[in-house]
Amino acid sequence: MTTDIIRGVPRGTADAPLSILELATVGEGSTPADSLRASTELARRAEEWGYHRIWVAEHHGMPGVASSSPAVIIAHLAAATRTIRVGSGGVMLPNHAPLVVAEQFGTLHALHPGRIDLGLGRAPGTDMATANALRRSADIDPNEFPQQVAELTAFLDGAFPEDHPYARIQAIPRTDDRPPIWLLGSSGFSARLAGLLGLPFAFAHHFSAENTEPALDLYRSSFRPSEVLAEPYALIGVAAVAADTEAEALRQAMPGALSWLRMRRGKPGLFPSPETAEAYPFTPMETDFVRERLSNVVHGDAEGVRAGLDELRKRTGADELMITTMVHGAEARLRSYELIARAHGMTA
């Protein structure tokens, strides 16, 4: 496997590839079907604008998020596009048997060779009751994640030792190569593991900003060259909202902060509209929470967002930025991604 399928070549004047993390957000007044149609249109437009890849996150039990089945959505997005890389950001591996994931992504890779990424996380992507229902067991230990990654890799490569209990089991379909595996994380655990395995690493800066630079430092210091990578490759997920004016960008970003507040209180729902956010009676404590949340969202007009993204890239040394735009309505979301692409010289 070469690094070409991991490293992107930025279009235009961008200093690093820009990519998209998609959650298939279901907003007030819309349905999951509306959300998934919007995801498909976003993938098509992202390809036109020059984004390097689009990944689908795995979440469960959240009315405002329709991305519970990444492999299914990835198949649909890849079929609706031609060149953009499509992948998982990520598959929450403890929720699944490694053989099942190997078969799913082996199938995707066979259907769309050279365009599929397999990002893996160790968090459940939901509450523990739902996680137990997914796993049919409460005995899954997140510390077994390294063993699960090794098992999945062996299934994809057909490389179990002869004395392994699974040595005669084949994950089919399997091709001569496989989708590149990424490790995802929001702490040092996966950062160190990705470095030791010589894998590309994606860090969730958009909800763990205080840990970004320590995790990337740990990844780089732990890195060992592998057949996949000769040197570290770090991607960070970034929350960003661009609009025609700074005031409108702030207005579009507020519902995302309200959505986070509701999730923190154990009351997730449909993604709120700007009108709902404007009418919400924030307490002083809630106002502080929203202010802190918005400080981690790069928002403003196109040039302001570009400056914020460029500063973040330079400060962290990230090789790639993956943008997630949590706003209400497909039109505002498309506009945000288009403005960011144009500000980076990615599209005519």
Automatic annotation (TrEMBL):
Gene3D superfamilies noted in UniProt: Luciferase-like domain
Domain of life where this protein originates: Bacteria
Listed GO MF terms: oxidoreductase activity
Enzyme Commission identifier(s): 1.-.-.-
InterPro entries in the cross-refs: Bact_Lucif_Oxidored (IPR050766), CmoO-like (IPR019949), Luciferase-like_dom (IPR011251), Luciferase-like_sf (IPR036661)
Domain Luciferase-like residues, every copy: 27-319
UniProt entry keywords in alphabetical sequence: Oxidoreductase
First-tier enzyme category under EC: oxidoreductase
Family statement: To bacterial alkanal monooxygenase alpha and beta chains.
Name of this protein: LLM class flavin-dependent oxidoreductase
Native species: Microtetraspora glauca
